[in-house]
Amino acid sequence: MQLRPRQREFVDRCHNALAAERNTLGIAPTGAGKTVMLSATALHMPKPILVVQHRIELVAQNHRTYRRMNPSGMTSEWTADKKRIERDGVTFGMIQSLTGHLDELPPLGSIIVDEAHHASADGYLRLINGARKRNPELQLLGVTATPGRGDKRTLRTVFSNVADQISVRELIAGGHLVRPRTFVLDVGVKDKLRGVKQLATDYDMDAVAEIMDQAPLNERVVEEWRKIAGERQTVVFAANVAHSKHVTEAFRTAGVAAAHIDGTMPDGERAAILRAFDRGELQVIVNVAVLTEGWDCQPVSCVILLRPSSHRSTMVQMIGRGLRKLDPELYPGRTKDDCLVLDFGTSVLQHGSIEAEQTLGEGGTVKCHACDSTVPKVCIECPLCGAELRKPAEAGERGERQERDAGDKEVLSDFVLTEVDLLKQSPYRWEEFWDGAMMMACAFDVWACMINLRGRWIAVGGAKGQPVRLLATEAERLVALSTADDYMREHGDDDAASKTKRWLSLPPSDKQLHHLGYKSPLEAPGLTRYRAACLLTWRWAEGAIKARVMEAGNARIAA
């Protein structure tokens, strides 16, 4: 498995911060490959290492990813059923199972906290403080997509600095998330919303509901959504439970399959509604602060904001629910190019759209004026205490309703530039065939190709011991390319096929020429050994590739 350049930068910054401060927080949103970066950082931290999670699914996921990156590494688990610390390696443990057995743990070299916004909770603090007493040189790494959330406590009591923050904007520009298209809609309540008081953690949502939760406004929301979003699967963020239920009823009255969920519902009932939405049986799901984090449903391609957000990070998290790319293997017949964001409140006006977000680049770090922690200069809010550090570049008034044409043009120019950067940064050489209508890369045990059909791109890949699979269908070129390149990185762990290797540019071998039907190199001018390998891969896999493409097309027609 090979890291993307931005992932490698994240890992290096975490190591540098750990060397200087013995603790750090890394922030990586959905789509960044948080589990991969966590595992890569763990490879070079002092042992024994304890990786702490709060859900059993994360224990298995992190353990599995680490084993793929370090197959010979010593690992174990500490859960309700298994209790063993790997003294010369890495242990993946549940915080709930660890807190009752803290005296049984040996001195630790490192602790890694996944979903580290929980790190200031009592159980985590007992674990971390106890480990620091036994080993003052303990290294502590936290990784999260949502700093400052969870139990709302400041993370400054646990971490003194933030090593890196990968922005959603970076992932969009790189094709790892789909583009948001932001609409700001004024339904006549903008001035009233600006007068709502801010409480300890957010705006007074009951006061917001008094303004927003009116039958004519709820009906208007459905009307505007239908004009702009059409048949898209949509997640709605309401102000409070009553508001959410009334909005759900407005959708149902209009003949839309919709459901409401909130935190008071039984887990089984809530899970059943989410499964129905994932299967496409529901088009709209309305919630109150339940789906802001920890829920990723790829078919979501429209997000409606019916509430303001006092923190920009909350707005980004809500919008982020719709930015996941669609896996055609999991959702045959469905397509997704972008995500519509319909803001009926004031979040985008206050904080600026995601499209305007700046990237880290060479920006360096700054000291937070409120908690004195060191954070990346790009941060708009301090990830550790939530203090506002600067205003977003494009926050401010916009028209009554606008599609961000200028923003789309910026993204388009970024698209061209970023595609060039992606090809340059890829460890593999991508060869073009058929006047650019097909691209292919191969690395012995893994290959991927992209095919242009009527202006849309389909990506297919294959790896040793695995069936040929569909990677992307009817996608933008950049999205298809980043998906295929990620597949190559994930399955191609041998750098012998790196594009820097000399053999790639050598003339084709006699065996390659024979299989391609050439009698001598003179019949194939300009053909390299690597390009010949790609052509032969295509020939050998052509039937399977065409079968997957046909399946995707038939599924699309059926849908």
Walk me through this protein's architecture:
The chain has 559 residues and is of the alpha/beta class. The protein folds into 3 domains: 163 residues, P-loop containing nucleotide triphosphate hydrolases (Rossmann fold); 199 residues, P-loop containing nucleotide triphosphate hydrolases (Rossmann fold); 133 residues, no CATH class. 36% of the residues lie in helices and 18% in strands. The chain has 17 helices and 20 strands. Strands 3-4-2-5-6-1-7 form a 7-stranded parallel sheet. β14 and β15 form a beta hairpin. The longest helix is centred in the last third of the chain and has 30 residues. It starts with a helix and ends with a helix. About 5% of the residues have low confidence.
What is the highest CATH level, the class of the largest domain? Alpha Beta
Oligomer: single chain
Total domains, how many? 3
Distance between the termini: 35 Å
Mean pLDDT: 87
Radius of gyration: 25 Å
By helix and strand content, what is the structural category? alpha/beta
Global outline: globular
Major sheet: order of its strands? Answer: 3-4-2-5-6-1-7
Uncertain spans, ≥5 residues at pLDDT below 50?
358-362, 394-414
CATH fold assignment of the largest domain: Rossmann fold
Please state the second-level CATH architecture of the largest domain. Answer: 3-Layer(aba) Sandwich
Largest sheet features: 7 strands, parallel
Q: What is the number of helical segments per DSSP (H or I, 4+ residues)?
A: 17
Percentage of residues in DSSP E strands: 15-25%
By CATH, the superfamily of the largest domain comes out as P-loop containing nucleotide triphosphate hydrolases
Helix fraction bin: 25-40%
- What is the tally of beta strands? 20
